[in-house]
Amino acid sequence: MSAESMAAFRKSKGDELSKLAEEHMQHDLQQSDRDALRNAASKFSTHATIGSLVGLGLGIFLAYRVRSARTTMFNAFRAREKPVKVQFADGRTEPIPDITALLQPTTLGDVAAYLFFSAGGLFLGGETGLLTGTYSATRSISRDPESRARIETAFKKFRADVLRKEATRLDGGGSVFDSIF
Q1: Among 120, 144, 114, 118, which residue's Cα sits nearest to residue 40?
Q2: Residue 132: CB partners within 8 Å, gap ≥ 6?
Q3: Nearest of 105, 122, 127, 104 to residue 61 by alpha carbon
Q4: Cα–Cα distances in Å, from 39 out to 32, 44, 158?
Q5: How far is CA 69 from the centre of its chain?
Q6: How many CB atoms lie within 10 A of CB 37?
Q7: Whole-Å CA distances, 46 to 43, 134, 141, 168
Q8: CB contact set of 83 (below 8 Å; sequence gap of 6+)
């Protein structure tokens, strides 16, 4: 088992791509374009963070409400008078087991409720934040049509350079499996 079999230790092309992107930002864009991109990235990040936090809070609140409703329902069930036997038409009687202990809320159930509700809230809030952040960032970039055109051109040049580097790496020889894995 090699060190690269785990994603955390795998060498990535992130540094190489970020250097290439920084070169394109410096050469292909004006300072106002770079500021617009940084502002859009900041808006996107802010929306995603706020959405995630609101979703997490909502998930915890809903878990608390579900847990308290379940506890209230259990207490009402426990307080009610329950039948202890059933009598059939032929006169035979059978005892009914007391299942109150099986319906009692448990710590494991509480942990599961908080975990899954908070994870679901985090997911929904984060995704909503991503959508609103994308919309806000797109609007901020699209305000100036000339700046937008320069940004799109720079992005196209960046993508072309990335594809050229990938083609060069693939044409350089070596095993096909090395380039995939």
Answers
A1: 144
A2: 47, 51
A3: 122
A4: 10, 9, 20
A5: 28
A6: 19
A7: 5, 11, 16, 38
A8: 96
Task: Please give the sequence-ordered ranges of beta strands (E in DSSP) within 33-167, or none if there are none.
Answer: 85-87, 93-95
Report the candidate in 77, 141, 152, 71 with the shortest Cα–Cα distance to residue 113. 71
- For residue 87, the SS3 value is strand
Phi, psi of 105 (to 5 degrees): -60, 140
- Residue 62, exposed/middle/buried by CB under 10 A (0-12, 13-18, 19+)? middle
Model pTM score: 0.72
pLDDT digits (tens, 9 = 90+) for 44-97: 999 999 999 999 999 999 999 999 999 999 888 888 888 888 889 998 999 888
pLDDT tens-digit series, residues 10-56:
556 667 778 888 888 888 888 988 899 899 999 999 999 999 999 99
Residue type, position 98, single letter: D
Spatial contact of 102 and 86, defined as CB atoms under 8 Å apart: no
The torsion defined by the Cα of 26, 29, 155 and 49, in degrees rounded to 10, comes to 80
Whether 63 and 117 have beta carbons less than 8 Å apart is answered as yes
Distance of CA 44 to the CA centre of its chain: 14
Q: How far apart are CA 82 and CA 100, in angstroms?
A: 10
